[in-house]
Amino acid sequence: MKPTARPRMPQFSSGPCAKRPGWSLDALKGAMLGRSHRAALPKARLQAAIDKSRALLGMPADYRLAIVPASDTGAVEMALWSLLGARGVDVLAWESFGAGWASDIVKQLKLADVRLIEAPYGELPDLSKVGADRDAVFTWNGTTSGVCVPDGDWIRGDREGLTICDATSAAFAMDLPWDKLDVVTWSWQKALGGEAAHGMLALSPRAVHRLETYKPAWPLPKIFRLTQGGKLIEGVFKGETLNTPSMLCAEDYLDALDWAASIGGLKALIARSRANLAVVERWVARSNWAAFLAKRPEYRSWTSICLSVVDLAFLRLDDKARTEAIKRLTGLLEKEGVAFDIGAHRDAPPGLRIWGGATVETADMEALLPWLDWAFAEVKAGLAKAA
What we know:
This protein is an alpha/beta fold. Helix content is 36%, strand content 15%. It folds into two domains: 32-261, Aspartate Aminotransferase, domain 2 (3-Layer(aba) Sandwich); 265-386, Aspartate Aminotransferase, domain 1 (Alpha-Beta Complex).
């Protein structure tokens, strides 16, 4: 039977993600439009975005934080091109983004001393293989696999290398151990549902020291340069962005930060996200066709919730047919207006990927799941008819 209850908000995309509950365009009325981002008041709004991010995340006082161009991708690339090459690098990859950083390090930076520590979708690499005397590059949460590192215990406190962490689907949803992370990046459009094209780059004192004492062998584009004359460009970390930011997007990000603070801060954000996963876990436990892509619950993500189909009729299909079946399933949901953009990432195994971050209401997640059962039953009936 087709369900009757519908999610109030059908936005379950893993990026850009759902806006915060109650959001409307009125939230942007105070945006500094038509103003230079270098002027005092607009610059103060950018500085507020930095300050409020620091406070919400509990970032140490001696860490630097900047707004940078090109979303999380730009922030990670800035770190890779500016910091790597001083020592050997270990790259962890268990889904498409980690694999992408590995490809850039090997094929673009052409570093010679690179070790790839990888695992297939649904699993986590052997974290004990990361060398304390080497730089490490990794995602905290594998957005396209639904697998996240369980904690930072595997990172040595007395490490010599830097840890460069892509935390775009973990920041504001997971508790990051700042003392174990030297570079942390994220984007506005992920966990808080901000607008696209802006990234955040956090640097530990150790990362700053590397920037000021090491010069890469390759030229750096202007928008990647964080130092001048061997010293950190302090203005970049005080709202003086390297390129022109959108003040409309900045106002939207500030609105999301204020909402997060108003509901209880980071602990409340984490609790909301984990409640969404708990709803899905209860449903999966009853399901005869769906399972988590993450093989073990201890590294199961509660933001990018990735599901695989374990029904025998589906498993008998080849990869192309499975992909088409998932497209039919998600197409039915979109046509009904109950879930948008929840197909697995193009590089991941055919399945579903549902965003469970804090901006998604648990009631909407509960309303969605019967629709998944209905849509799968429709697709399975079509497969039986075709056979």
